[in-house]
Each structure stands twice: as structure tokens, then as C-alpha cells.
Amino acid sequence: MPQRKQVEALEHMCFMQVAKTIHSLAVQLEENSECCTISTEELSSMVSALPAVINENMIVRVIETIHKTFSRTRRTVGMKTCLEVLLQPRVQRLELNGLFFKMRLQGTINSTIRNTVCVHVASMRNLMTLNMVSKCSDEILCVMSEKCPEVSKVIVSISDLVTDQGIKALAKGCPKLENLGIYKCWNITTIGIAYVLKHSKNLMKLKCDQLGAVLISDFRKSKNTFKLTHFEQTQAMFEPKAEDVRWVGNVCPNLESVSLFVDDRNLSLVPLLGGIKILEVETGAVLGEGFVEAIKYLGGSLQTLQLSCNQVQQEFIVMLGECCPSLTTLHLSTAALEGDELLTNPGRLFSGLTVLHLQVWKETVLSNKWVDFFLLWCYKLESVLLKAEVAFLTDHYLNALLAVNPLTEAKYIVIASDEYVPLTLESVHTLMASCPALENLGMSSWDITEEEFFEIRDDIKTNNYNLTIS
After folding, report:
1. Can you tell me the distance from the alpha carbon of 173 to that of 148, in angstroms, rounded to the nearest whole number?
2. pLDDT at 437 over 60
3. Is 25 or 398 the better-scoring residue by pLDDT?
4. To 5 degrees, how large is the angle CA 451–CA 442–CA 324?
């Protein structure tokens, strides 16, 4: 059976209680300050007396509280005051991604919050990390460049108010910058990206969908070397020459991960980048010899493969298991699984796999041979996601599979379909009995009534199991 929930740590209880109190007082101050027992200045003074690490933790907890309130009431009252009292000068790690990324806020409150952040960041001389996905602006980055020389990590992806001006200022004023996330910042041009690459000498990770094109076109004839550990080209098709890819591998000797939108032919060039551990590939083509060559040369170094393509041959999956014994994570999303050869696992393929996410688009039915190939032999699996047409996956089939491989390490199991998964309440109890580590079970497509779902949920609550169902 799943493990019981642990007694909530006193530390977490205290954090959440203080967070709720701060949010409640902030709401009172904005709705009726005359009746509130404390002023904004007094509340800010109380927060300033907290140790810095508690202050930083409290920012995250208060944002969680705001999110829960907003999800329930759609009200943003108190949000501005919370930031005003929490954004203290000694903060080193400012995690604001939850505030924007989890909630769709109105333009006026977004502007108010950005202005508040901009004002308070100016006093954070020791700031090292800013995570402000979705709603950062040039103004905030420019202030950081002038006032926050210790900054080493900035994540502002999906921010349409960040342009070349902001990242140029950041590169110029923050010499310790090591990690910059500007993925899907559509108003940043290749000029700004090239400026960052040229001036940020300590940059190790640049999450940017145009990185490959800029690196090759702007620096190919230079003598620059880079500390980059991640290489990416996903905005447009990556169509390089072999000598260009070899040059990238030479000037970026520390590369560990690669994300590409590429055709099969150019996949064969990936090994020229070095001993890549993490490979993420999206291609509209059918996998062929390019994929085979890449996998054979990457061999023992590859630990994670995330692959999205139109078609996968069965023999390529067998070859992947044979060539990459260190593989621990496999994400495969495809429209078709093909092949005439018998798909069999001799018992040693993918033996180290801990994450298996297999998604087949609804036009294709997933064969039980594919499920057997992995789930009968991957004893270390901790995360399993199967999304496809799986008419064969009945209670009897699942019970027989778990009898061979009980998935004792599995914490996350989702079996879903756009149509119907013929698993019933019986399989829920079977999985709960077989998987003692299970923490999340996705069964939205199963043959389970609403009453049965509530019955399971109540049983989990009554027995205090550490399990979430959805």
C-alpha cells in the first residue's frame, strides 16, 4: 500500500501560518487601513527582523497563499502590499515565478507588481537569483544591472516586455552572470543574444531558442571560447554544416545538454558536439540513419533522451537500449510505431530506466508489445506515463504485468487516452497494493464512475495515504 503521510513539519506549519497572517494583514491594509491594527511600515519592519533565508522562504509561501486565494475568489487584493513588505534589501534569491506563471492577472495589477518589484530590486545589493518568468520587463533588468552586481542567475522566459535593451544591460552590469533563461522572449533579437554571448564571460547556461543560429553566424570566425553547458536551436530548423557543428563542440567543450529542432540527416552531426548527456530532439521527419548514427556515437554518455517525431521503427528502440546502457530517462512522443521485426527485450535493455513517458497520437493504437517491452523489464521505474489508445490494457492484463514487475519504485503513474482506458476500480486497488512508493496516480480516462472516484479519494484521506489521484 502507499506510504502514510508524514506528520507535517512544525517548520512548514509555522511558515504557512505566518504567510497567511501576512496576506490577511495586507488585504486589510488595502481594503480598510483605518481599521487595521498595524501599518504597512510596521509590517515591513517586522519582516525585516527575520533572517534573510526565512525572508526568502516567506516570499514563496506567501505567493502560494495568494495563488490559493486567487484560484478560489479571483481577487488580487493584498498582492501589492505583500510584495512591498516582503521584498527586503537583504534578499539574495527572489523567486517570483509562481506569482505570474500560475495566475492570469489583469494588465493593471501586472503593471503595479512590476513597478513594485522594480523599486525594491534597486536596494537588493546582494541579489544573486531572479526568477520572474512571464512578466519581467526591461526596466527591472536595467535596475538590476546598476544595483545588483552579484547576480548570477536570471530566468525571465516568456516575457514579451524583455528586449535587447534589458539583456544588454544585464550582460554589461552583472559580470557574474552564469545562467540566463530568455526562452520564448519574442522581442529579443539575434543582436541582443550575440551581445550577451560576447560580454558575459562566465555564462554557462543560456536557455534561448535561437542560440545555435547566433553562435554559428556571429562567432564562427572569432577566437572566442565559451563555458556553455547547454546548446539549443529550436525556433527554426537547425541545418548546419558538419564543420560548423564541430567548431561549436571545440569552442564549447563543456556541453552536456542539447535541444534541437532538426531533420534526421542532421541528427548524425550531434555527436560532434561532444559527450552529450541530455538530448532533446523535435523533428517532423521519420527517424532514419541519422538517428541511428547519433545514438551509436553518443553511446554510454547519453542519460536522457526526449524525442518528438512522426514515426519510430521498433528496431531503433531496441538499438537505443543496446547502445545507451546509461539511459535513465526516456520521453517519446510520436504519431506511429512501426516495424516488422519482433519487439522483444532480452532482459537487459533499459535496465537503468527510471522515467518512461510514452505518448502516441490518437491515430495509432499502442501495441501491448511496446508496453511489455518496457514494463516487464524496467524494475527501477519511478515515473511512468502512457498516453495512447490502449484497448488491451485491462484489469487482468495489468495484474499479470505487475505480477512480473510490481513497480515497487514507482512514485508517478499516469495511464491516459483521448478515448477510453478499460481499467476499473480493481486496478486502482491493485496498483495501491503493488506500489508502496506511489504518490501520484492519473486515471482520468479510466472506466471509473464519479462515485467510485470519490470513494477512492475518501479512502485515501481516511487512511492518510501519501497519494494524490486525478
Report:
1. 8
2. yes
3. 398
4. 160
CA distance readout (Å), 298 to 288, 301, 304: 16, 6, 11
The answer to whether 395 touches 368, Cβ cutoff 8 Å, is: no
DSSP state of 7: P
Phi then psi dihedrals of residue 36, to 5 deg: -80, 140
Residue 440: its H or E element: strand 440-442
Distance from C-alpha of 440 to C-alpha of 444, rounded to nearest angstrom: 12
Q: What share of the chain is helix, strand, coil (3-state, %, to 5)?
A: 45, 15, 40
The conformation of residue 11, written as its DSSP 8-state character, comes to H
**What pLDDT score was predicted for residue 363?**
60
- Structure confidence by residue, pLDDT tens digits, 245-293: 999 999 999 999 999 999 999 999 999 999 999 999 998 778 889 999 9
- For residue 440, list its beta bridge partners: 412, 468
Question: pLDDT tens digits, residue range 357-416?
Answer: 999 886 666 778 888 989 999 999 999 999 988 889 999 999 999 999 999 999 999 999
Tell me the C-alpha to C-alpha distance, in Å, between residue 265 and each of 177, 270, 285, 310, 340.
35, 10, 9, 15, 23
What is the DSSP pairing of strand 230-233 with strand 355-360? Answer: unpaired
Cell triple for 407: 513497480
Q: Which of 464, 459, 409, 416 is nearest to 438 (CA)?
A: 409
- Residue 15's pLDDT band (cuts 50, 70, 90): confident
Closest C-alpha among 163, 167, 95, 164 to residue 132: 95
Phi/psi at 216 (nearest 5 deg)? -75, -45
Torsion of CA 249, 253, 258, 260, to 10 degrees: -20
